[in-house]
Amino acid sequence: MGLLVPYDGSALSKAALIRAEQFDAILDEGVTALTVIPESNRQYARDRGWIGPDETYTRAAVVANLERSVSAISPNAVFEFVTVGRSAPYGTIANRIRRYARDADVSILFLGSENAGRMVGSLSVGSAVASGGGYDTMIVSQPVPSKIEALEEAFPSEGILRSETESGAKLSR
């Protein structure tokens, strides 16, 4: 069993990672941050801040930047990635996340999403991932986790996102 955070470097995926760490401080299951990377899609990576505007696209650079971003927020989290085709068909990313969650026997998936459950299901990657069986889903919809006293005592969130930005880690969307 473990806790899984689909991670793309967005403010909401960062907030979901913080929330997963807070739960892990109590549950002690371990946190994995998972990124699905479209192979050789330079524009996709740039649009998400995974590489800089002048940085050459390589899988190694994308992975290193993502791993650095995860580590700045959650030093104990395991970073994993899977790749999909450059122009993967609709639903591929959500399917890879669900497959990973099932194969890893995830107990809770922490999903940072502005629209999961609010948009028509067929339009939302978040709702597609949340509908996966075998695990609970916690939807984090605020870019700064709300203060829940017991969780804050277990893993304080104050200043984490600010210190991640100050450390020079990329992905400050």
From TrEMBL:
InterPro entries with a match to the protein in the record? Rossmann-like_a/b/a_fold, UspA
Q: Name one Pfam family in it.
A: Usp
Q: Signal sequence: where?
A: none
Source domain of life is: Archaea
Task: Give residue ranges for domain UspA.
Answer: 4-126
Query: Which protein is depicted?
Result: Universal stress protein
Species of origin reads: Halobaculum lipolyticum
Taxonomic lineage: Archaea, Methanobacteriati, Methanobacteriota, Stenosarchaea group, Halobacteria
